[in-house]
Amino acid sequence: MIRNFKVEDTEKLIQFIKKENIVDGDNILSDIESDDKKLIVYDEAGIRGFVYMSVCNKETKRYDVNLYVEVPSRRKGIGTALYNEMSKYLQEIKPNLLVTEFSVDKDKEASFYKRLGYKKWFGCNELYYRGIIQPNVDIEFVPYEDKYYDQYVKLVKDCFYELRKENDIQPYSIPANKQDRENRLKSKDSIYVLFENEQLVASIFVENGNLDFIMVTPSYQGKGYGKKATQFGINKALSQGAKLIQLGALEWNTKAISLYESLGFEIVQTVHFYRQFGEK
């Protein structure tokens, strides 16, 4: 039976997520009854599959939709039935953009979404580090402060603008405004920056075992700063008690992936993002 998720389904959903090893499980379970989320389940003596929708950006009307069916129940029309049920809701809200993601080792997902009108957007490798502490770096990263904001925004633009444009990930540049500045300040304990002659040349984000925004200003690239920033991030995460360190890298960014692998990271899965535009 296909029906809307109910609170009493929570434990069954948790069991399903663990059994199917769904990487995004924590996000699905977080604030699951929010108005910005909708979940429909296929219940037959337990949850056999579900489709999940969340609001990614209200202003642009981007919605993320992901569908999961347990392995023994696949190729029985359950996935199609679940998506058709979610489509009734999507027709009411009229999204401008739908995005889905799935691991490339999952069987037949690409062809399933292509039949629904989705096209591949980009791919991202997820890498894990399970190693020991790295050699101490000979440069000093310091915690982020609000006075660095203008330089920080410029560093993000210099490092990510072309990458985001190449993959049509909008906005191509971070909107430098009051809200963004406040968000950076809230994350100040997780952002570390490096200066050379008062110029911001590198930065890294470290939080709960996750490394992100590993950046080196273009004029300093190729000089080992990316490696040192990553080593600093590994050691910082380990000092904070992390047992597993994670980061992501776009598939085509082979230089960064080679660097991470040389330090002991391993690719654990590759996720492909597919999208479908709504009617204008």
UniProtKB/TrEMBL annotation:
Instruction: List the CDD domains.
Output: NAT_SF (cd04301)
Q: Name the Gene3D superfamilies on file.
A: 3.40.630.30
Which parts of the sequence belong to the N-acetyltransferase domain?
A: 1-134, 139-280
* Molecular function GO labels: acyltransferase activity, transferring groups other than amino-acyl groups
Cross-referenced InterPro entries: Acyl_CoA_acyltransferase (IPR016181), GNAT_dom (IPR000182), YpeA/RimI_acetyltransf (IPR050680)
Q: One Pfam match, by short name?
A: Acetyltransf_1
Q: State if Acyltransferase is listed as a keyword.
A: yes
Keywords of this entry? Acyltransferase, Transferase
Q: Does the keyword Transferase apply?
A: yes
Name this protein carries in UniProt:
N-acetyltransferase domain-containing protein
- Which classification does the entry list for the species? Bacteria, Bacillati, Bacillota, Clostridia, Eubacteriales
